[in-house]
Amino acid sequence: MRRKIVMGNWKLNGTKESVEALLTGILPAAQATTTADVAVCAPDIFIDQVSRKLADTPIAWGAENNDVHTSGAYTGETSPTMLKEFGCTYVLVGHSERRQYHGESDASCAHKYALLQEHGLIPVLCIGETLEERESDRTNDVIRKQLAPVLNDLGVETLKNAVIAYEPVWAIGTGKAATKEMAQEVHAFIRQLIAEKSAEVAQGVQVLYGGSVKGANAVELFAQEDIDGALVGGAALIVEEFDAIIKAAG
């Protein structure tokens, strides 16, 4: 049975004071659950603070992005080796906001994904369709295209050390979550694509849902056969909401 993961993506949010309060607030729920893993992905500037606060706790931590180089003249970037040194476990790859605002492509996401694995980090590969793509019935085509560089070029076996996050772009930060049926349908399709390469990997890979996940809808989402947890945005910044989502995973 696949273990659930509840992972927070803080995006461009936080202060030293708010990070301390948030982590203090969510620790009891994370410590109480025995059936789910809990993680937070923070802006780079807070990773040291997070690592110190969460050392020797059940909460894992990670980053929201990484560069495709390990060192060199790349001002403003952060390498996988740096993230590893600060105890990161996970790194988000290809979030729709990175694709939209920074021009990241499926190929560049696959490059980052591979580099993370080379340095012992777990990529969380974010995929999902826009509203226009959904309304024109192209969701499956988009998912297939976004997964292709990993499945066809890097190999399905790499998914044994990765997480997939399905985040319909139209549901991120909008309050419009996919219904449990809509989310399950796409999660099942993702698993089907992987099973075409390896049934074993398809059964084992954790596929998270993201897009306006809250305590109010987490239970029904997590009850779906192919949904293995959540990548949580806005609600991950609110102790009561994130606590409720952690409890729903249990």
Automatic annotation (TrEMBL):
Enzyme Commission no: 5.3.1.1
Enzyme class: isomerase
Pfam family, one: TIM
Alphabetic keyword roster: Cytoplasm, Gluconeogenesis, Glycolysis, Isomerase
Record carries keyword RNA-binding: no
Residue numbers binding substrate: N9, W10, K11, G173, S212, G233, G234
Enzyme active site: H95, E167
Record function comment: Involved in the gluconeogenesis. Catalyzes stereospecifically the conversion of dihydroxyacetone phosphate (DHAP) to D-glyceraldehyde-3-phosphate (G3P).
The name this protein goes by in its record: Triosephosphate isomerase
